[in-house]
User: Fold this.
Amino acid sequence: MLPSPCINICRMDADNGLCLGCFRTIEEITVWSRTDDSHRARILAAIARRRAEHDALPGDGKR
Assistant:
């Protein structure tokens, strides 16, 4: 089983709907424990894209 990307900073960003800690949506967080590794891998890929976009933003990463 792929490990959860949760880093225990569980706060949702009201602007983009993503967790400020793990960059998952509420839907992704909710489904994580009930889905298979194939779906988890897709979620992890989406997280990687979101994190790269976030890190590419100038300043403190706020939009």
